[in-house]
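Morning, I've got a small favour to ask if you have a moment. Here's the protein in full, and shout if anything looks odd to you:
***
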Amino acid sequence: QRLGVLHVGQRIEEQADFEKIYKNAWADNANACAKQYAGTGALKTDYTRQRTQWGLIMDGWNSLVRYYKNNFSDGFRQDAIDLFLGNYSVDEVEPASPLHVKKDWKFLALPIIMVVAFSMCIICLLMAGDTWTETLAYVLFWGSASFGTFAIILYNGKDFVDAPKLVQKEKMD
């Protein structure tokens, strides 16, 4: 009322159109901020608008995408934020860039092998052979191949994570 948005005696609860516009603007702003920092839209924005089953599914999808990005492709984004904010220190004696790290063959080959082996295991289950022993043999072979590559990836897990490369500055006090 002091700002002149409402007349004297009007209540905000009575302004359904304004409330809808305000909540949509709030949720859109949350999406924009989340996309900049996390790489996906904000979670739970449908609470602000109106909770739906589709919103629940999108929250699950955004959570999965965030998990993948956070662990496997977000190190460079964090380096960019640190560089932009000035929160980094680079060793001036070291001639090589701290951002350049040579990747080994296993970073591409092992995930592809695991996906192919898992897909073949599913295909063997869906397209059964002439006998159950033949089907079982194929499923065991492809299942063990997919489990084996998954175990190797887990064992070398820290090598697959895309961690930031820039080192934080020490606090100057």
Q: What stands out?
A: Residues 132-155 form the longest helix (24 residues). The chain has a mean pLDDT of 81. Residues 101-168 form one domain. Helices lie at 16-37, 45-49, 53-73, 75-85, 106-126, 132-155, 157-160.
